[in-house]
Amino acid sequence: VGVRIRPVSPAELSTHNTLNDAWLAIRGRVYNITHYLPYHPGGPEELMRGAGMDATQLFDKVHPWVNYDSLLAKCLVGPLRFDLPDAE
Ligand code: HEM
């Protein structure tokens, strides 16, 4: 029951970069954006530009006013952590 929140390494984040399995990070929080892709007002292709990476700068360049954290509340995977081993 409930969402499992767990830390994610940059290496793991980088593997989630396809339309069927897309994650991105903004300000240290990793989101699974797969199910949001069809609803993104800028279209899935634009959103995919940030997939698999820390998309903070890209996001802020386009629309810093958008409340991503509430829109993606249910898509939160966990914090981006640089001190994790690369395995997994
Ligand atoms: C709109 C790109 C991430 C939510 C847009 C538009 C672009 C864009 C180009 C303008 C569409 C138009 O007006 O025709 C991107 C890129 C992203 C990204 C490159 C990569 C990081 C996100 C995320 C969210 C989001 C993570 C939130 C979950 C929205 C919303 C709008 C929008 C709500 C409409 C904003 C408004 O009209 O004020 N996006 N987006 N986007 N995007 Fe994104």
What keyword list fits this structure?
88 residues; Flavocytochrome B2, Chain A, domain 1; four-stranded antiparallel beta sheet; 4 helices; binds protoporphyrin IX containing FE; alpha+beta
Domain tally: 1
- Going by CATH, what is the homologous superfamily? Cytochrome b5-like heme/steroid binding domain
How many individual β-strands? 4
Sequence of secondary-structure elements: HEEEHHHE
Indicate the CATH topology: Flavocytochrome B2, Chain A, domain 1
Rg calculated over all Cα atoms: 12 Å
Beta content? 15-25%
Ligand roster:
protoporphyrin IX containing FE
Judged by helices, strands and strand pairing, the structural class is alpha+beta
In whole angstroms, the N-to-C terminal distance is 23 Å
CATH architecture: Roll
**Biggest sheet, open or closed, and with what strands and sense?**
4 strands, antiparallel
**Form type:** globular
The helix fraction, in percent, is 25-40%
Structure description:
This protein is of the alpha+beta class. It has a single domain, classed as Roll (Flavocytochrome B2, Chain A, domain 1). It is 25% helix and 18% strand. It has 4 helices and 4 strands. The protein has a 4-stranded antiparallel beta sheet. Strand 1 and strand 2 form a beta hairpin. The radius of gyration is 12 Å and the shape is globular. The mean pLDDT is 95. Bound molecules: protoporphyrin IX containing FE. Protoporphyrin IX containing FE binds next to helix 2, helix 3 and helix 4. The site of protoporphyrin IX containing FE has 17 residues, from helix 2, helix 3 and helix 4.
